[in-house]
Specification:
Layout (H helix, E strand, L loop, with lengths): L1 E3 L2 H13 L4 E6 L5 H13 L2 E6 L19 H10 L4 E3 L3 H4 L18 H5 L1 H18 L3 E5 L3 H13 L5 E5 L19 H6 L1 H15 L5 H14 L4 E7 L13 E10 L2 E10 L3
Parallel strand pairs: 1-4, 2-3, 2-5, 3-4, 5-6
Antiparallel strand pairs: 7-8, 8-9
Helix pairs in contact: 6-7, 9-10
The structure holds adenosine monophosphate.
């Protein structure tokens, strides 16, 4: 595995591989790897000749008062895990390589960015995501890029971006990887103290409860959301949102006719956590 710091080095290495007919996969990350990240890397490894993993804690997607300065960083550990996952290139650029002096461009995706985390965290968040993902796609020019369904809204933002700007990149969304007790893996789980860590399992239980209700035949939004909220409240969690939305464009839904996304965000102790579940009614 090669660790690269510059855009020029990545372009040269990817260009050479591509000239010899290799397919290229990209896994964009902010580092602090866990099994969620590794699942994306394994999928990319299985499907591509050359795999690039980027590690960049992107400041433009963090808001004032968010956790940019405390976000976990451990490049040595990440490099060791990426090497174990047989990654070819770890692209870990310094801030000025991605945002040099005078940087002035923002990519804004309308619509799907305006609800849920876009409303909760503010418009800068998905502007930051769309801008850095566009840059990474320009730098690496992957055939396929791998994202986690954990960040379901982000996947839809990236899909919209790729369609609207005619980017020749296939987007693959990988399933949510969970801890044995159901908590969705996240780099931010390190912020949880013992009590918060225990209460945090309520997010997955809320999604389970909603799924069970749907399996029992209930399809209306209010009932589905109420049962999820009750699980959160039982663990003294006041969610930022619990919402039922369409899987393709995040329209608000009154009822589930075929599939729907149930999405939840909540502050638990020192961490802001998100989770989601695709709910399906049998025809
Ligand atoms: P991050 O480093 O948090 O920006 O995440 C990098 C990529 O890993 C994103 O596409 C995330 O959606 C994905 N990811 C994060 N946590 C998980 C998880 N628990 N399961 C699957 N994918 C994940």
């Amino acid at each position: 595995m090669r660790i690269m710091r510059t855009i020029a080095d990545v372009r040269a290495a990817v260009g050479e591989a591509r000239d010899s007919g290799s397919t290229v996969g990209l896994v964009p990350t902010m580092g602090a790897f866990h099994e969620g990240h590794l699942s994306l890397m394994r999928r990319a490894r299985a499907e591509n000749d050359l795999v690039v993993v980027s590690v960049f804690v992107n400041p433009t997607q963090f808001g004032v008062g968010e956790d940019l300065s405390t976000y976990p960083r451990d490049e040595q550990r990440d490099a060791a895990l990426a090497r174990e996952a047989d990654i070819d290139i770890l692209f870990a650029p310094p801030l000025t390589e991605v945002y040099p002096r005078g940087f002035a461009t923002t990519i804004h995706v309308a619509g799907v960015t305006e609800v849920l985390d876009g409303a909760s965290r503010g418009p800068h968040h998905f502007d930051g995501v769309a801008t850095v993902v566009t840059k990474l796609f320009q730098i690496v020019a992957p055939d396929t890029a791998y994202f986690g369904q954990k960040d379901a809204q982000q996947v839809l933002v990236v899909r919209r971006l790729v369609r609207d700007l005619d980017m020749p990149v296939r987007i693959v969304a990988c399933p949510i990887v969970r801890e044995p007790d159901g908590l969705a893996m996240s780099s931010r789980n390190v912020y949880l103290d013992q009590d918060a860590r225990r209460r945090a399992t309520a997010l997955n239980r809320a999604l389970d409860a909603a799924e069970a209700l749907v399996a029992a035949g209930r399809k209306d939004r209010d009932a589905v959301i109420a049962v999820a909220r009750a699980e959160l409240e039982a663990s003294a969690i006041q969610p930022e949102y619990v919402e039922l939305r369409s899987t393709d464009d995040l329209r608000e839904l009154d009822r589930i006719d075929s599939t729907a996304l149930l999405l939840v965000a909540a502050r638990v102790g020192a961490a802001r956590l998100i989770d989601n579940r695709t709910l399906e009614v049998s025809p």
